[in-house]
């Protein structure tokens, strides 16, 4: 499965304490998200990536062990949540 986010202009992102508000202009919806969701969203703007590619890029950008199952599980869960909220698209 591949994932993609719209252009940055489609979102307004504002940090509030430990969480972040993401306003998705096309849907008119505001979502309260974790920093992990924001990091993934930043990777997917106008790009189409697999879950594995998102893991690898996050590992590189944040000096993580990209081979760990924990990272893959967290990224997979966040991608599913983001797609369910319609802030990213699933592409077959």
Automatic annotation (TrEMBL):
InterPro entries: PqqD-rel_X
Database matches in NCBIfam families: PqqD_rel_X (TIGR04353)
Domain of life where this protein originates: Bacteria
Native species: Sphingosinicella soli
UniProt protein name: PqqD family protein of HPr-rel-A system
């Amino acid at each position: 499965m591949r994932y993609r986010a719209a252009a940055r202009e489609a979102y307004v992102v504002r940090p509030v304490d430990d969480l972040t508000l993401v306003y998705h202009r096309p849907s008119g919806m505001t979502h309260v998200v974790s920093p992990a969701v924001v990091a993934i969203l930043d990777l997917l703007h106008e790009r189409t990536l697999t879950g594995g590619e998102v893991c690898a890029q996050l590992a590189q950008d944040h000096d993580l062990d990209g081979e760990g199952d924990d990272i893959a599980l967290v990224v997979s869960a966040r991608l599913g949540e983001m797609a369910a909220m319609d802030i990213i698209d699933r592409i077959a």
